[in-house]
Amino acid sequence: MTDQLRRRAFGCLLACFLGSASIAPAQDQAGKFDFYVLSLSWSPTFCALQNGGRNEQQCGGNEDFRFIVHGLWPQYEKGYPDFCQTREPERVPRSLGQTMFDIMPSMGLVGHQWRKHGSCTGLNQRDYFAKVREAFRRIRLPSDLSRGETSLTVSADQIEERFIAANPGMSRRGIAASCEGKRLEEVRICLTKDLSFRDCPEVDGDGCKISQITLPPAQ
User: Fold this and answer.
1) Counting beta carbons within 10 angstroms of the beta carbon of residue 21, is it exposed (0 to 12), middle (13 to 18) or buried (19 or more)?
2) Predicted pLDDT of residue 49
3) Which of 8, 73, 85, 217 is the residue whose CA sits 20 to 30 A from 155?
4) Residue 91 carries which DSSP code?
5) Does 196 or 5 have the greater pLDDT score?
């Protein structure tokens, strides 16, 4: 190959590299996402696990939690951002965290959700947790599922159908039940940035596939 051809080939490679870099989407930047996923954890399943049982604040107190907020997660149409750089501190002050204990009953949960997910919303800590609470208030929990008085075994479809029936505007393509073994782990609900219901094919497709899921009772 002549020097001229080598220079031309190198120039083409460089142009292709710079061109692809210029159109590559920015990832994991605070405030850059498409929608939210509100994840509602079934607390009795968490507490039945070995690690969950060590969480005295959630599992060893006088209050028996049922559905709690696992998190409000910024999401891309495919994938999600996490641990974004922000000017906010990594640590959540206890004075703020404890205001969430009725729906997020431990500082460990509050702090982790802020660092991994809240940091990517573009919101400050106080506004993020206000958004979490607002999202939770938008959801009507099906009374027969959330009672938690006795063990209940249903299909993933039945869990989703009961949430849809209780929440006008929610669709089958915007909710997914996930499981831990044969027990309900959490229910994930997709929301727009202004917290309206929306579809989310990737999240919906990751739901639990087994035919029967058990909701352990609250103890």
Assistant:
1) exposed
2) 82
3) 73
4) S
5) 196
| pLDDT tens sequence across 7-47 | 444 444 444 444 433 333 445 899 999 999 999 999 999 99
What tokens were used for 64? 């028996």
Cβ-Cβ contacts under 8 Å for 60 (sequence gap 6 or more): 53
Q: For position 190, which CATH number holds?
A: 3.90.730.10
Domains held by the chain: number? 1
Could you count the other beta carbons within 10 Å of the beta carbon of residue 141? 17
Give the integer Cα–Cα distance in Å for 120 and 175. Answer: 22
Q: What is the mean pLDDT of the chain?
A: 88
Which among 72, 71, 73 is positioned nearest to 81, based on CA atoms?
A: 73
Range of the domain at 34: 3-215
86 to 82, 112, 131, 206: CA distances (angstroms): 11, 15, 17, 29
| Non-local CB neighbours of 114 within 8 Å, separated by 6+ positions | 90, 92, 125, 128, 129
Q: Is the dihedral of CA 95, 99, 100, 101 positive or negative?
A: positive
Give Cα separations from 19 to 14, 23, 24, 96, 101 (angstroms).
8, 7, 9, 45, 49
DSSP H or E run through 42: strand 35-42
Taking the C-alpha atoms of residue 88 and residue 15, their distance in angstroms, rounded to an integer, is: 38
Q: Which of 174, 201, 198 is nearest to 187 (CA)?
A: 174
Alpha-carbon distance 18 to 188, whole Å?
Answer: 39
Alpha-carbon torsion 161, 167, 172, 178, what sign? negative
